[in-house]
Write a structure and sequence with these properties.
Helix 1 crosses helix 2 (about 25-40). Helices cover about 45% and strands about 5% of the residues. The protein is mainly alpha-helical and about 80 residues long. The protein folds into two domains: about 10-40; about 50-84, no CATH class. A two-stranded antiparallel sheet has the order 1-2. The termini are far apart.
């Protein structure tokens, strides 16, 4: 079937690279990618838990986030020039 589609620039570039790497035409590459997406296994939605006050919480299986972990991330992301 012949049809015309509009792709955003990033999608077009990705499909072009994919087609070139696989030795396909752009149409064949897009067709292959769509078919792969159709057969991909669906992921289960995350299980959301709520506190007694109604606040959504991470699943207990997610692990514990410690103050040290938060401090480490804050130190990595801190840019003193942004506050000068």
């Amino acid at each position: 079937m012949r049809t015309t589609i509009t792709l955003n620039d990033e999608t077009h570039v990705f499909a072009g690279y994919y087609a070139q790497a696989r030795g396909l035409t752009l149409s064949a590459a897009i067709d292959e990618l769509i078919r792969k997406a159709q057969t991909a296994l669906p992921t289960a939605p995350p299980e959301i838990h709520y506190s007694p006050s109604g606040l959504p919480m991470f699943s207990p299986a997610s692990g514990i986030i410690t103050a040290e972990m938060v401090k480490s991330i804050e130190e990595e992301e801190f840019d003193p020039q942004a506050f000068a």
